[in-house]
Design brief:
The protein is of the alpha/beta class. Helices cover about 50% and strands about 20% of the residues. Strands 19-20-22-23-24-25-26-27 form an eight-stranded mixed beta barrel, surrounded by four helices. The protein has a six-stranded mixed beta sheet with strand order 2-3-1-4-5-6, with helices on both faces. The chain has a five-stranded antiparallel beta sheet with strand order 8-7-11-10-9, sandwiched between helices. Helix 24 links the parallel strand 24 and strand 25. Bound molecules: ligand C2E and calcium ion (CA) (2 copies).
Length: about 750
């Protein structure tokens, strides 16, 4: 606790305020404990809240500047209404650690706690807030006078309520219990019946009652729940009720919007603006005194809250199962429907078909979102018409729709027929094609969720191979996709866990066998020591986008290694690094290349980037611009795997390529006449275009002799060296120097 002297400065602010007067005059106050190791916070808080009144009482402040002091104070004053608690004090968690002490050790369950911290990152876990019933959490910077007041008065009100309830009678307990029970009711009918039951037991009277609702002042009042002797009047108008006393009591209640009593019973008013007027009548001969009346008020206000909640739940479930745009059932609804069908029958011949609009993204981008939305709605309607009950048509994602139903109702032809005619959108004719995948539910292992996943895979496969068609499920599609997915997961974690590493393969100049450079190649050895070939995992990384991060790492590691090699004295050597198409198409590729060489401190002329021909076919213009930009920065370029893919000789002339890498398959074929002619031709061509040629995958001396005879400039292959880890490479280079350099 603060001592007198510490308190002095504070007293300058608070000396004459109402708080102190209240304490002196022994009036009722709310006690507020400020726990904070910063004196300024104490003074600022008390100053901000001086002369504040909350629900008829002023505040009295207690002060503690450490957890220990606070504990002492609290054990002497259990009637603290609110604690303003600093999270970070002697230790980063001193404040939070105090919370279990307050709740569990000191058993102060009613006291409200407001946590305060200086920094957003000191926020406690949501779990802590829940477990320890913490009222509020605020940044100190947020605690302006008005917010502080709002936060504190809410906390005090809630403290007061909790105390009232705790001090309350058995009936109060019953009310709370009955509201909880009512809240768990599904649907308004059950709920309404529940109200009568609970009210009757609260009044210890027989369960005889009814509830009626009146939407507006001039409309009829309808009975929505009835028990006991009133049961026959369920769903009838109040005017048809043959019990005048009950009728009058209810009408008086609805008209005055207040509870009304007569000798034989009472009507409670349960209306709200949204719901309209609602009243519950029960037969009861109990006399009501003042206390009972306030209890009933409380019962009513609880019921009203419950009713609002039930409406909310009903509304939420609407949202949860409907797609707002198309008005069709959504993915949740579809999953549930499939689950129910699977559970209800043993063997079903249902199929799930998912339909995707081809090029929807382009339509949306070029014609606008309003147009796109209209088109989606129109597609939904058309599907609905084409596949009536018992089929279910749902919208499962952006431009993906689904039909679920008996196989005889869903055929490929029927689906294609649905899109044969143009749509009329904003007075434009819009023809679309769709791609679809169909999966028989009997093939699915699992429920609705799995069915949708399997069908998505079939749909994706269809998209890749044959747009505008409908593809039927084949087992291996799902298996392949699942296998790839699981490998991708492993690859991701291997990358995070540093299980990937690089090896380097020397590249030699044929006329003197000097090593002029290295190609870096990535390796993945899993935890069992098995090597997974890059030809398997690189395409996965490319498809998933992981290649961008993975490639950035490979690039950086390769450049770092080259710096090491230079330090070893191989000063003229360069490093060849493979770049995937996906990497080159990434918007930040130039930035990555530039910043990596700049940070590591090496001239780009020592870096050679290996790209493949397939890059050029995607978009020649932008590819050329990119390659020239890369060249301008000083990097050199190799065209990898030349001779395997697209015979893009006219691209080749336009591209700023330094090296052609003759694919291993061409070298392998060089034992035939035809094969030799092809290699000869390519080497001649390269010479004319001013490019050097690197022969890849050279495995024997015969191949070397042949390549030399054609003036091929470089070779790389197991004949000279396999790709090696750095330490092995250092050894190899040493031996090689001894052998080849005179
Ligand atoms: P690539 O770029 O054409 O790499 C040459 C491949 O040929 C390497 O296979 C290398 O080990 C292998 N090789 C070299 N000399 C011989 C030989 O004399 N005989 C035989 N049979 N093979 C030889 P690797 O390392 O398995 O890589 C396969 C492909 O995976 C690479 O083909 C490249 O397309 C891709 N790749 C490997 N590392 C990376 C990388 O770091 N980034 C990217 N984007 N792709 C990579
Ligand atoms: Ca390569
Ligand atoms: Ca290659």
């Amino acid at each position: 606790m603060m001592n007198e002297k510490d308190d002095d400065r504070l007293m300058e602010f608070v000396e004459e305020d109402s708080t102190m007067r209240a304490v002196k005059e022994n009036k009722l106050v709310w006690r507020v404990l400020i726990i904070d190791d910063d004196n300024d916070v104490h003074s600022a808080t008390t100053f901000a809240l001086r002369s504040t009144e909350v629900v008829g009482r002023t505040l009295e402040f207690l002060h503690a500047s450490s957890a220990r002091e606070a504990k002492q104070l609290m054990s002497e004053n259990k009637d603290i209404a609110v604690i303003l608690l600093d999270v970070v004090m002697e230790t980063p968690n001193a404040g939070l650690d105090l919370v279990p002490v307050i709740r569990d050790e000191l058993k102060m369950k009613d006291t409200r706690i407001i946590l305060r911290t200086g920094q957003p990152n000191q926020a406690p876990e949501i779990q802590v807030i829940r477990d320890y019933d913490i009222n509020d959490y605020k940044l100190k910077s947020e605690l302006t006078q008005s917010r502080l007041f709002a936060s504190l008065s809410t906390a005090i009100r809630s403290y007061k309520q909790i105390q009232a309830i705790e001090a309350g009678t058995k009936s109060l307990g019953m009310i709370v219990k009955s509201s909880a029970a009512l809240l768990s009711q599904q649907g308004i009918d059950e709920f309404a019946k529940g109200i009568i039951g609970h009210l009757c037991s609260l009044l210890s009277s027989p369960a005889e009652g009814l509830i009626c609702i009146r939407q507006s002042a001039n409309s009829n009042s309808n009975i929505i729940a009835a028990t006991g002797q009133f049961l026959p009047f369920m769903h009838q108008s109040l005017m048809q009720l043959n019990d005048n006393k009950a009728q009058n009591c209810l009408l008086e209640c609805l008209d005055s919007r207040k509870n009304s009593f007569n000798r034989q019973g009472l009507a409670l008013y349960l209306g709200s603006e949204k719901r309209g007027d609602m009243a519950c009548y029960v037969r009861s001969e109990t006399e009501f005194d003042e206390v009972d009346e306030s209890l009933l008020e409380l019962f009513c206000s609880n019921i009203i809250i419950c009713a609002d909640n039930i409406e909310l739940v009903a509304q939420l479930s609407e949202y949860a199962y409907y797609d707002m745009l198309s008005g069709l059932p959504n993915r949740n609804a579809l999953v549930e429907e499939i689950d129910n069908t699977i559970n209800a029958k043993k063997l079903s011949d249902e199929v799930l078909c998912m339909v995707d609009i081809d090029n929807f993204a382009e339509i949306n981008a070029s014609l606008g979102q309003v147009y796109g939305d209209d088109l989606l709605r129109a597609v939904g309607q058309r599907m609905r018409r084409q596949f009536p009950e018992p089929c279910m048509v749902a919208r499962v994602a952006g431009d993906t729709f689904a039909v679920f139903g008996p196989s005889q109702c869903i055929s490929q032809q029927k689906l294609l027929d649905a899109f044969e005619h143009a749509f009329n959108i904003e007075n434009e004719r819009q023809i679309i094609s769709v791609t679809a995948g169909i999966v028989p539910i009997s093939e699915v292992i699992g429920g609705g969720d799995e069915a949708i996943k399997d069908t998505t895979i079939v749909l994706k496969t269809a998209k890749n191979h044959s747009r505008g068609e409908v593809l039927l499920f084949r087992h291996n599609m799902v298996k392949d996709a699942q296998g790839r997915l699981s490998m991708l997961r492993h690859l991701r974690s291997a990358f995070e866990l540093d299980q990937l590493f690089l090896v380097y393969q020397p590249k030699l100049r044929l006329h003197d066998l000097a090593v002029t450079g290295f190609e870096s190649l990535v390796r993945w050895r899993d935890q069992h020591g098995n090597d997974i070939p890059p030809e398997t995992f690189i395409p996965l990384a490319e498809q998933s986008g992981l290649i961008v991060r993975l490639g950035a790492w490979i690039f950086q590691e390769s450049v770092k290694s080259l710096v090491e090699f230079h330090k070893h004295g191989w000063v003229d050597c360069h490093m060849s690094i493979n770049l995937s198409v996906a990497q080159l198409q990434h918007s930040e590729i130039l930035q990555l290349l530039r910043s990596t060489v700049a940070n590591i401190g090496i001239h780009p002329k020592f870096i050679n980037l290996e790209i493949t021909e397939s890059l050029a076919i995607t978009d020649l213009e932008s590819t050329l611009k990119l390659l020239f930009d890369i060249k301008k920065m000083g990097f050199s370029l190799s065209l990898d795997d030349f001779g395997t893919g697209y015979s893009s000789l006219n691209y080749l002339q336009k591209m700023p390529i330094d090296y052609l890498k003759l694919d291993k398959s061409l070298i392998d074929a060089s034992h035939t006449k035809n094969g030799r002619d092809v290699v000869d031709m390519i080497i001649n061509l390269a010479e004319k275009l001013g490019m050097e040629v690197v022969a890849e995958g050279v495995e024997n001396g015969g191949q070397i002799e042949f390549l030399k005879s054609l003036h091929c400039t470089h070779a790389q292959g197991f004949y000279y060296a396999k790709p090696m880890e750095k330490s092995v490479l250092f050894q190899w280079m040493q031996n090689n120097e001894n052998k080849n350099i005179p």
